[in-house]
């Protein structure tokens, strides 16, 4: 279970400003801070580990090109930077989906839960699981998707998600409910691995 | 507790290590609805365990360094651009505001009337447009400007000193530049300036108060002087290109007089003296009867162009309205029945004396008062004395010479 690195407003403000001034080490720190998050987001969107890793690098390359024009929100700098970065990732994922048709995988209701076995079979099974999850997540709208990713991928609290998305906790709960209802319908009941 | 709250509670419990079954047992009534949602949530946890592989992470950092170096190369020469991008919006807003201001100011100036704060600017700008012109183009432009000023005075119904000053100044410039033009063109210039003077004098007559009347009359007088000067020079043949200036008389010798038209038409305006517009030279009864306007309600008319020497007018060619100098209708109405045949005033009567550069007037250059040679008469259509009637004997005319 990944423990998200704490991201504070002060850290993000300092790193972004240093990056904008051309500090390469600050850029690397930002990468360390956000690379796994962006990777998981892209994995949840695309369901392909290799592709998600490639696009993660591409997100940061795009970020370098656009960082000069980015203005931090002084009220919530970390949230604004994070939202901006996720937006780049979302656009990249959309671009990729448009340019290349993703291999369609049937949403088998007998979806097994992934085990911890690193055997080739288990790896293949995990890939299939990820692909199905990605396809189900693709059926959500962007707000529902971000709530799901915040809650189950980044393990954020409702309050943190609300601050991140600029919404109330009630709205987050509502989005979470609707998203899970859709995902439950699409993924079906789980089959325990033997 | 609604379903959203129950679901949220279950998700928290799942995160704390409870199983899906435990959560469903906790809420048996909602278990059917909760089950697929909690199962989906449990599956989603698989994503949180995903991390970028170490080799991919290193490759990513390498790619970032390269991209950063390339970006720095691009950004370095464009550092100013980045800085200007910060300034771009305020500068654009400022430029737009300036443009708006200029357009608004130009509109205000163009639409200004005497008395407006922007009227002096309009006068100066319109006048400045004539400066680059030369010759007859300059004359035409100056006269057009003068006519605009006259129209301004008419419209405003007041003797605005700026408009009057600009009017006189434009006419003076036109007259000055016209001295380099051929005689026919100079005559036409004199005619137009005279029309301006006439327009002013009519306005003076119609003026409501003495101060206005006085100002208009003074301006009209200045223009009349200008006309007189132009016509005298025309008679003398001074100033025109290709014309020899008269030789100065020599002491002790008799200088042959310049050919004097014995029966020449009047060159002076025939209706210039008006009530309220004092003239330097009062009209004198001349040997030549003048034409009279047609009808009793004669409007502002201008005398025909001063003929060249010896030329006899054959038709009332210039009984025309004075264009922009024509007075407003109300003003015209006040002029009716005042128009009476007036004695001709000779140009010499208002002559300011020898012009600079002109030969001194000798005895032979006296203006011609030729009672022995009566001028031919001209009968306007619609009544008047019969044509070709002998002219009445000339009256002794009190001439008053104006000192230069």
Reconstruct the topology from this structure.
The complex is a heterodimer of chains A (194) and B (404).
Chain A: H1 9-20, H2 24-46, H3 49-66, H4 77-99, E1 111-112, H5 120-138, H6 142-153, H7 158-165, H8 169-187, E2 190-191
Parallel strand pairs in A: 1-2
Helix pairs in contact in A: 1-2, 1-4, 2-3, 2-4, 2-5, 3-4, 5-8, 6-7, 6-8, 7-8
Chain B: H1 3-15, H2 20-26, H3 31-48, H4 54-75, H5 79-110, H6 119-128, H7 135-156, H8 161-178, H9 183-206, H10 210-236, E1 301-302, E2 320-321, H11 329-333
Antiparallel strand pairs in B: 1-2
Q: Please, could you describe this protein's structure?
A:
The complex is a heterodimer of chains A (194) and B (404). Chain A has helices spanning 9-20, 24-46, 49-66, 77-99, 120-138, 142-153, 158-165, 169-187, and strands at 111-112, 190-191. With 194 residues, chain A is mostly helical. Chain A has two domains: 1-104, RNA polymerase sigma factor, region 2, helix turn helix motif (Rna Polymerase Sigma Factor, Chain: A, Orthogonal Bundle), CATH 1.10.1740.10; 127-188, Orthogonal Bundle (Arc Repressor Mutant, subunit A). Chain A has a two-stranded parallel sheet. In chain A, helix 5 (120-138) packs across helix 8. With 404 residues, chain B is mostly helical. Helix content of chain B is 49%, strand content 1%. In chain B, helix 6 packs parallel to helix 8 and helix 8 (161-178) runs antiparallel to helix 9 (183-206). Chain B is elongated and about 125 Å long. Classes of the chains: A mainly alpha (194), B mainly alpha (404). The interface between A and B is large, with 52 and 41 residues.
């Amino acid at each position: 279970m990944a423990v998200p690195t704490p991201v504070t407003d002060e850290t993000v403000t300092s790193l972004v400003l240093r990056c904008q001034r051309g500090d390469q080490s600050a850029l690397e720190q930002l990468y360390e801070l956000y690379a796994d998050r962006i990777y998981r987001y892209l994995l949840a969107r695309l369901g392909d580990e290799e592709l998600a890793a490639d696009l993660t690098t591409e997100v940061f390359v795009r970020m370098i090109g656009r960082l000069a024009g980015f203005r931090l929100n002084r009220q919530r700098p970390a949230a604004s930077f994070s939202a901006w970065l996720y937006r780049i990732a979302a656009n990249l994922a959309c671009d990729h989906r448009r340019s290349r048709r993703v291999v369609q995988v049937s949403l088998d209701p007998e979806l097994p839960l992934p085990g911890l076995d690193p055997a080739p079979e288990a790896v293949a099974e995990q890939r299939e699981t990820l692909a199905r999850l990605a396809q189900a997540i693709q059926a959500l709208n962007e707000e529902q998707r971000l709530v799901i990713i915040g809650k189950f991928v980044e393990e954020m609290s409702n309050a943190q998600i609300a601050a991140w998305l600029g919404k109330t906790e009630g709205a987050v709960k509502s989005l979470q409910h609707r998203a899970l209802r859709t995902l439950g319908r699409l993924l079906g009941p789980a089959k325990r691995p033997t | 507790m609604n379903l959203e709250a129950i679901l949220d509670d279950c998700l928290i419990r799942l995160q704390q290590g409870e199983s899906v079954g435990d959560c469903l047992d906790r809420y048996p009534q909602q278990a059917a609805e909760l089950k697929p949602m909690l199962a989906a949530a449990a599956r989603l946890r698989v994503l949180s365990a995903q991390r970028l592989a170490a080799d991919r992470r290193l490759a990513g950092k390498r790619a970032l360094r390269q991209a950063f170096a390339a970006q720095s190369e691009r950004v370095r020469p464009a550092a100013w651009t980045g800085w200007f991008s910060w300034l771009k919006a305020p500068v654009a807003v400022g430029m737009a505001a300036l443009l708006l201001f200029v357009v608004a100011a130009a509109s205000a100036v163009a639409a200004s009337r005497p008395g407006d704060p922007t009227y002096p600017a309009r006068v100066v700008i319109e006048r400045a447009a004539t400066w680059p012109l030369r010759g007859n183009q300059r004359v035409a432009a100056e006269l057009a400007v003068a006519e605009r000023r006259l129209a301004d005075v008419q419209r405003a119904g007041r003797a605005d000193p700026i408009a009057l000053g600009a009017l006189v100044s434009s006419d003076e410039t036109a007259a000055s530049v016209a001295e380099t033009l051929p005689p026919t063109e100079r005559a036409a210039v004199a005619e137009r300036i005279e029309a301006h003077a006439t327009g002013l004098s009519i306005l003076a007559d119609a003026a409501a108060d003495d101060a206005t009347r006085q100002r208009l009359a003074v301006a009209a007088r200045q223009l009349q002087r200008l006309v007189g000067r132009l016509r005298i020079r025309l008679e003398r043949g001074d100033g025109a290109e290709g014309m020899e200036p008269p030789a100065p008389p020599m002491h002790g010798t008799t200088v042959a007089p310049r050919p004097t038209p014995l029966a020449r038409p009047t060159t002076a305006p025939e209706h210039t003296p008006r009530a309220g517009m004092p003239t330097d030279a009062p009209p004198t009864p001349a040997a030549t009867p003048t034409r009279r306007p047609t009808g009793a309600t004669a409007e502002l008319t201008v005398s025909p162009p001063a003929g060249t020497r010896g030329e006899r007018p054959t038709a009332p060619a210039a009984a025309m309205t004075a264009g922009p100098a024509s007075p407003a209708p109300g003003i015209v109405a006040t002029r009716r029945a005042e128009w009476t045949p007036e004695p001709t005033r000779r140009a010499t009567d208002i002559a300011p004396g020898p012009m600079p550069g002109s030969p001194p007037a000798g005895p032979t250059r006296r203006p011609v008062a030729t009672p022995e040679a009566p001028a031919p008469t001209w009968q306007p259509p619609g009544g008047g004395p019969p044509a070709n009637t002998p002219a009445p004997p000339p009256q002794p005319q009190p001439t008053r010479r104006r000192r230069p």
